[in-house]
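Morning run. Coffee first, then this:
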Amino acid sequence: MHLTLDQVLDIADLPGTYLRTARCLEFIQPEYQDKAVKLLHDLDVEGVVVIGGDGSFQGAQALARKGIPTIGIPGTIDNDLGYTELSLGFDTAVNVCVEAVRAIRATSRSHDRASVIEVMGRNCGDIALNTALSTGSEIVIVPEMSNWSVDEIAHRLNALVDRGNQRASIIVAEGAYKTMAPFDVYEFMKDYPSGSRPVFPGSPMDAYFLSRVVEHKVKKTEVRSTVIGYTQRGSQPTARDAAFAFEAGVVAVNLLRHGESNRVVGVHNGKVFHMDIESALQIKPSFNRRMFNMVNAL
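And here it is:
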């Protein structure tokens, strides 16, 4: 796709990816990498700026090894790259979730009703944690907490209700269900009305069933569920994301102009920097357990 100046000026502030992107599992195979290299040479492409996460950066490494100058910019709303404090899309996703949770909490206040609110985060709970911190939510569930149980969540909500808080918010990352202690949704729910969704043997836990199970365990308050979903991905970028995108783009282009390759841009101590891709990928993301404990203890 050829981009003119007018097109770039028009799309600079738009959400989403104008060039369109999707995972390409075949790119792991050397023959597909060779096809990409040939295509880039045929198009006279002098360098590639790869915006993405761990998998995208591994693809960038492969291109660099085959002689294509590449620079990476972190672009994953999960914020699960350990070498950088910020990834493009994360701040926007958190702000979308914060706006949604505040609106849900306003309704919960009117009806004295608790809520389970699912946000994105397959292996990283940063969106959930930051959303909970920013909204005063009382419970947060993240993938980093292995073997958490439904009984723990019900016990916590029950204690909140006993203290007069019947409208607590439970923020759960979408990937947290896979790290929970074993729980048979069907075996528990078969003795209760399942509401608007039927339950079957093997039904997986999700936001809806979590709300139903917790409600039946607590028995003192209604519990509703909301999945915020793809609105986190397609919203107008926040000022913080837009500013980082601008600076990271300038740094990436300048690196290519000066003959640099196989490097990634990031943020450390609030400042934009760059480092070797291989070293960056070896840094594992850390989870702020102190803030997690703070949310769940109040």
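The mean pLDDT is 93. Good start to the day.
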